[in-house]
Amino acid sequence: MVHGIVPPYLLENLAGTADSAYRHAAASAARSLAVDRPMRAVRLTLSLGDDDSLVAEFDPSPTRYIADAESTEVLPGRTVRSEGDPAVGDLAVDEAYDGLGATHAMLAEALGRDSVDGAGLPLEATVHFGERYDNAFWNGERMVFGDGDGEVFSRFTAAVSVIGHELGHGVVQYSSGLVYRGQSGALNESFCDVIGALVEQHSSGQSSEDASWLIGAGLFTDAVSGRALRSLAAPGSAYDDEVLGRDPQPGHLRDYVDTTDDNGGVHINSGIPNKAFHLLATSLGGPAWERPGRLWYDAAVRLRPTSDFADFATATVAVAGESGVKHLLEAVRAAWDGVGVDARA
Amino acid sequence: MPGPDPLIIVVRRTGGFAGMTREWRVETDDETAWGGLVESCPWDAGGDDVGVRDGPGVRDGFVWRIRITGAVDREVEVPEEALVGPFAELVGRVRAQA
Lengths: 345, 98
What we know:
Mean pLDDT of chain A: 91
Structural class of chain A: alpha+beta
Largest interface: A-B, 36 and 25 residues
Number of domains of chain A: 3
Mean pLDDT of chain B: 86
Radius of gyration of chain B: 14 Å
CATH architecture of the largest domain in chain A: Orthogonal Bundle
Order of helices and strands of chain A: HHEEEEHEEEHHEEEEHHHHH
Largest sheet of chain A: 5 strands, mixed
Distance between the termini of chain A: 43 Å
Oligomer: heterodimer
Shape of chain B: elongated
CATH topology of the largest domain in chain A: Neutral Protease, domain 2
CATH superfamily of the largest domain in chain A: Neutral Protease Domain 2
């Protein structure tokens, strides 16, 4: 979507002009109007100020498009629900729509970020991707969700933490650009798990003490012995199944897994920074999307593409230090100490 | 007299949102059924570098590692979005027969 600074009424005047001197400008304005539609949604609140002056406040609100791949692997698929449309009755479509809304709300209200790019980017998702497809992914532009095989996995839209996680990849893409390999890749994955957990907690009003801290709860079928795909509270404990094996996540740097699989274990070693966030949030208590979430986010957007665990620890210590709140700085240091990661001096 | 070495084809899928590893394996001495397909794959088209993802792109996609031993020796890592053509056909056949 193109964000214009030329007001639409000016473009319309230009597009409608018959003056041949403005022939190119008119054509250009007409093109711009076509590109800009549909207009970005905002929530407008009007109120009266103390001196009876009119106060207009704009809050970011989401612009969502959900498409249906109709069991093919062809993207984007057919758009079946756009912003403001009523529920369509297809569970995956409506869960995706609601999950995008919950994620947009957490980003805007807790982190002060207007969509994944910070500038109101429309949120697009495709559901019913492939046949019995066991995955959800971010393709650089949109979230894509499979229906699951029905034996191990059910549909991937079933957990709002998964939807939040995928949008988290969009946030990373538009901010630090953490390289998807090794420690920087594990930081990328962990940031997305934290976003996923925060979206779930924010949308259900759960404090750190009451939250499950699970990612992907409800994705497994009843045939699987497991609660979820990952646990921020206890990495390595999310599932233990005869067929699938055991959750391989470490929760401490001494157990870091060196592997060539999975881009260098990005979904495995993410357990280490995940646990650090859980330690911080539970030591501070209350809603995790407030102080701990904001601190984690403010530090994450300062990272470079090749940042490692120690760089991130250092950034969180710096943000805590700038806050001037002594117990916050102590809590951040204790959290990283708990997973064996040292901030750089 | 011993016959030719069999082909052992191992397809390993890692990564994905769940980060779970799955593996499929086929052992065959049917050169006519598999040899042509194996040789038609672009094994050197990027080698291990095919799997590295620096720029914006797919996140949480599967990573496929295909390893052949026995009569021939080949190995490659392919991210899901690059799993097309002969590699996709090879993976599909191994999964179907394993």
